[in-house]
Design goal:
By secondary structure, the chain is mainly alpha-helical. The protein has 18 helices and 2 strands.
Length: about 450
């Protein structure tokens, strides 16, 4: 009797295929005639772009969703954003576990990789908590959004409720899509409650599920893990610095609320309460930096992540003193430092390549706008200087790749070639160390 050999699927391959499948399904849905208001289906490239942007929770759009999409189309967008933010795997395993199904070791490995965890212990329980906490936060957001928008929509309950749900999902998942019109949140720049609700949802989704879980369960900042402490410190510092630079760059043009909102939303959310087409150089650079850094690990946002930048900056600081980097009485592992620099390097290379490709295809757009679009796409931010609707098919395809690559993360993509994912990789041959002249 011949024994069937069990094929072990690399978890990263499974995660990539899952995202691709959801994007393909979303593309098909957006191409249906009843997904749009005029009955004329979207072209394949536009449907693919919108599906990729929704699943990768980016927010870049080649159309105006509020005008072009029907109720069906908007519901599909909301579903895709929810799946993209929480990941299809997380949602599926949660419901499977609730129904009493047994989660095998293979699926636990997949969850571990999807959630960027170091251990399989308690992984299913963590998934359940993630779904529950995410649902509660978004429901609170729906209530606040409803109160803030009820008068704006002439006290129309159903209309306001639908917009409140959509905006809560888009905000928590750092997607940046809106169905207000074609001006994002500029008409609501003075609506304090809506601004606070949106910022709170963006920050909650951007902190990462691990940090949120610890904040809910440990009830004390002292008991938080080092990861959570770093994320909270970096989030506060980046928001504060961004707010100050935006305000002083455009002192007479924007309020403090707009400066704060812009600083928060540049960290992969994609909403805007100020026109971005003519911002000064200092504000432009700040936008690029914040988008590049992005949110935190295991969150609904993209970018190279706050912890990556923290590790790199800490390494610079201690290297100048000839010491090993450390924080909170703990030394940063060499593996973490290596991963941080690899991630940073790959991200820069991919962004340069994407900018060059779109520049070759549409040179008249200008370097500043192309670079802004590419960084926004890769970091899944969704902010734009107004060129997204006029991109040609090739440029749209490049941005689709950037969004997909950025959402999954460079380390996930290149990790596919690692054949030792089940065990710790150890080289059989040890080579003599050689010092290479650097700098």
């Amino acid at each position: 009797m011949i024994k069937k050999r069990k094929i072990k699927v690399h978890p990263y391959v499974f995660i990539i295929l899952t995202f691709l499948s959801v994007i393909l399904l979303g593309t098909i849905c957006f191409m249906l005639p009843w997904a749009v208001t005029d009955g004329k289906h979207l072209s394949f490239i536009d449907a693919l772009f919108m599906a990729t942007s929704s699943v990768c929770v980016t927010g870049l759009s080649v159309i105006t969703p509020a005008v072009k999409f029907s109720l069906f189309g908007k519901i599909i967008m909301a579903v895709l954003m929810e799946i993209g933010g929480l990941s299809f795997l997380t949602i599926a395993v949660c419901f499977f576990a609730i129904l009493g199904g047994k989660i095998g070791i293979g699926n636990r490995y997949l969850l571990r990789e999807a959630l960027n965890q170091n251990s399989l212990a308690g992984i299913v329980h963590l998934v359940k908590r993630i779904i529950l906490i995410s649902f509660v936060i978004q429901m609170i957001g729906v209530v606040l959004n409803f109160i803030a928008l009820f008068a704006y929509y002439d006290y129309n309950f159903l209309k306001t409720f639908g917009v409140a749900i959509f905006h809560s999902i888009a905000s928590f998942n750092n997607a940046g899509f809106d169905i207000f019109g074609n001006q994002s949140m500029i008409p609501f720049k003075d609506n304090i409650l809506l601004n606070i609700s949106t910022m709170s949802l963006i920050i909650s989704g951007g902190l990462g599920f691990i940090v949120i879980n610890e904040l809910v369960s440990k009830h004390s900042l002292k008991k938080l893990s080092i990861h959570s402490k770093i994320v909270l410190v970096m989030t506060f510092v980046l928001i504060l610095i961004g707010m100050l630079i935006f305000k002083f760059s455009m002192y007479d043009e924007i309020s403090w609320l707009q400066a704060l909102f812009t600083s928060v939303t540049c960290r992969t959310a994609g909403f805007t309460s100020i026109p971005l087409e003519h911002i000064p150089p200092s504000a432009y650079i700040m936008c690029i930096v914040l988008m590049f850094i992005g949110a935190s690990p295991c969150s609904t946002g993209g970018g190279v992540k706050t912890t990556t930048i923290f590790v790199i900056m800490l390494t610079f600081f201690y290297y100048a003193q000839g010491k090993k980097p450390r924080i909170f009485h703990r030394r940063i592992s060499d593996n973490s430092i290596f991963k941080a620099f690899v991630l940073f390097g790959i991200t820069v290379i991919i962004m340069i390549l994407g900018t060059m490709l779109i520049g070759f295809s549409q040179p008249k757009l200008g370097l500043d706008k192309i670079l802004y679009e590419v960084v926004s796409g890769f970091s899944t931010t969704g902010l734009s200087m107004g060129i997204t609707p006029i991109l040609n098919s090739f440029s749209k395809a490049v941005l689709c790749f950037m969004m997909f690559f950025g959402r999954l993360g460079p380390l996930t993509i290149i990790g596919v070639v690692n054949h030792n994912w089940m065990t710790e990789s150890k080289e059989k041959i040890q080579y003599v160390e050689e010092r290479i002249i650097v700098g």
